[in-house]
Specification:
It is a single chain. The chain is mostly beta strands. The chain contains no helices and twelve strands. The protein has strands at residues 2-3, 6-7, 12-13, 19-24, 32-35, 42-43, 48-54, 57-63, 69-73, 85-89, 94-95, 98-99. The strands form four sheets. The chain has a four-stranded antiparallel beta sheet, with no helix packed on it. A four-stranded antiparallel beta sheet has the order 5-4-7-10, with no helix packed on it. The chain has a two-stranded antiparallel sheet with strand order 1-12.
Amino acid sequence: MPLNPSTTPDEITASSSEPVTFDPADGKGSVYGGPIRDGGYSFKVAVGPKLVRILGMKKLGAIGPDGQPMASQFLPPRYNTKTELKAVVEPKRNALSFELNVEK
């Protein structure tokens, strides 16, 4: 499941409607993120080392109490809540790729 963006310090461009976020690696500063569409994403982000979190939700075929379709996270925690994904956004155009391996 590849995610292959091209990025600049002001804009990250790549290619689903699930979010990807870039958190400051030191925990200080703003979190930047947006939805994944057609296998990629595009949003502004500050330069520097980041922890990358990617969510992937799968519809369960049921409706929840709020009237919305129920979904569950299908990506392992190593890509989101306990992310192992790291990136450094440089002050130039960046090309960041993430290969997500999901065991079935």
